[in-house]
Write a structure and sequence with these properties.
Blueprint (H helix, E strand, L loop, with lengths): L73 H6 L6 E4 L4 H4 L5 E6 L18 E2 L2 E2 L22 H12 L3 E6 L2 H5 L5 H6 L3 H18 L4 E5 L3 H8 L10 H4 L1 H4 L6 H15 L3 E7 L18 H15 L5 E4 L6 H6 L16 H15 L3 E6 L17 H7 L1 H6 L2 E6 L15 H11 L8
Parallel strand pairs: 1-2, 1-10, 2-5, 5-6, 6-7, 7-8, 8-9, 9-10
Antiparallel strand pairs: 3-4
Helix pairs in contact: 6-10, 11-13
Length: about 450
């Protein structure tokens, strides 16, 4: 995933308010070809562009995800108030948001308010990167003032949560602030930045403010996609990666370890304290082990082994998290193809990379963690589109809605679809297919997790 500036991005709009943010960072430097080693690399995969078919392909290392030993997400779904797998979306259109999606996610990014903590007013004395947050000054990058400046800061989150709840949807907040808040380059420098108690203190103050505005709502908190992959690439032991946690947040985490492991545990503890009905999951990037597992083309590749390595890292960072959030690609395959990359997953499951491999990885990751997974920011493109900006082809929407049983068998509690960049396909530009599919899914009662 390529990080994009908050100014250029389009995110969920609540009550007609347009704002912008960033996405979940870069694809971490993992190879996307063949190779049996942990860091193997090579040519791009050759997966086809089919949109149907159940297929019977796959290998012992990367085959279908059936036969899992437990139904990991049953209690979590019940606590979220749902009885079936979640069909989720990111959308800026009120009409689309009113469709029967189970979950709606949005981004918070762009950096922090200037100073040590959140502003008391957007209208007076509040700046971000030196820019006034008042409406008369054009507004600022800080999410807490993406609103009318006479409202108390944080209305953007409060309104988003209320709007989702009014539609019977679970609000999910993807919080992506380390990159722009720290001002460092993407990747390992983000990990290193957390050793600075000033930077980390501003992060914690802002994250706390998010949670306070979520309040008692049932929600999902998704902190820092990609960061955990960069952290694992910086070192396999999160206890050995420094982060100034107790110094930066003595209010909530004075007894936590001064490490990346302590950072993850602090985020969970803060969520429990300030948003007690929210669930939290760290992000599991398929490239975190320095090889992009879901893009693998080698039948002998150890998919389960790489999943176990990632699970071990995440378990040290957040042993009491509720789920793991995962992704495949945040760009439509047609867009990548137009730019010289082959990121298709073969829908017949005959040629790697394919869907059975992706579900084998997700299922193994969840089994090793003992936590269910949620697919996030899957591309919205479909096979009917002309492969032009905002209308690119992809096959993940069509495959998932035809194979929810495979998602369930791999310990998945759902899949959320959304554009990872402003020129990608959206639910408003896909010809209405995603809305049509979710209408049919809801009418049929959805996919049970534990059939």
């Amino acid at each position: 995933m390529n990080a994009w500036a908050w100014q250029a991005a389009t995110v969920t709009v609540v009550l007609g308010l347009a704002a912008a943010c960033g996405d979940g960072g870069d694809d971490g430097g993992g190879g996307a070809g063949s190779g049996t080693g942990a860091t193997g690399a090579g040519g791009q995969g050759t997966g086809g562009q089919g949109t149907g078919g159940t297929g019977t392909g796959g290998t012992a290392a990367a085959g279908g995800a059936g036969g899992q030993e437990a139904c990991l997400g049953a209690s979590l779904l019940a606590e979220l108030g749902k009885t079936h797998l979640l069909a989720g979306v990111s959308t800026s259109d009120p009409a689309t948001a009113a469709e029967p999606f189970d979950l709606r996610y949005m981004y918070l990014s762009g950096g922090f308010a200037d100073g040590a903590g959140p502003c008391a007013s957007c209208a007076q004395g509040c700046t971000a990167f030196g820019q006034s947050c008042a409406n008369s000054g054009g507004g600022c990058a800080w999410w807490g003032c993406w609103q009318w400046d006479q409202d108390a800061p944080g209305a953007y989150v409060r309104d988003f949560v209320a709007a989702a709840q009014a539609e019977g949807q679970i609000p999910m907040i993807t919080y992506y602030e380390i990159l722009q808040g720290s001002g460092v380059a993407e990747g390992t420098p983000e990990v290193d930045a957390l050793a600075d108690p000033v930077i980390l203190g501003r992060f914690f103050a802002d994250f706390r403010f998010v949670l306070e505005n979520v309040g008692n709502a049932t929600a999902i908190i998704h902190p820092e996609p990609d960061f955990w992959g960069y952290a694992e690439q910086a070192g396999p032991d999160p206890h050995a990666l420094p982060a100034a946690v107790p110094q930066a947040n003595p209010t909530d985490c004075a007894s936590e370890e001064a490490s990346i492991a302590g950072f993850g545990r602090c985020l969970v503890a803060m969520t429990r304290k300030y948003a007690p009905n929210a669930k939290i999951g760290l992000h599991g990037s398929p490239w975190a082990t320095s090889f992009d597992v879901v893009a693998n083309t080698d039948p002998a590749f150890d998919v389960a082994g790489h999943a176990a390595t990632l699970a071990a890292f995440l378990a040290e960072c957040a042993p009491s998290a509720d789920l793991v959030v995962i992704d495949g690609s945040d760009r439509d395959a047609g867009y990548d193809q137009a730019n010289g990359q082959d990121t298709w997953w073969d829908a017949t499951n005959q040629t790697l990379p394919h869907f059975h491999q992706a579900f084998a990885w997700s299922g193994a990751l969840s089994a090793a963690l003992g936590k269910p997974n949620l697919w996030w920011q899957l591309p919205v493109g479909n096979s009917t589109l002309p492969d032009v900006p905002q209308q690119w082809k992809d096959n993940r929407v069509e495959y998932v809605f035809a194979h929810w049983d495979e998602v369930a068998a791999a310990h998945g509690i759902g899949a959320a679809f959304g554009a990872g960049q402003g020129d990608q396909t959206t639910p408003e530009t896909d010809g209405g297919l995603l809305v049509s599919l979710v209408q049919g899914y809801a009418a049929a009662g959805g996919q049970p997790l534990c059939p």
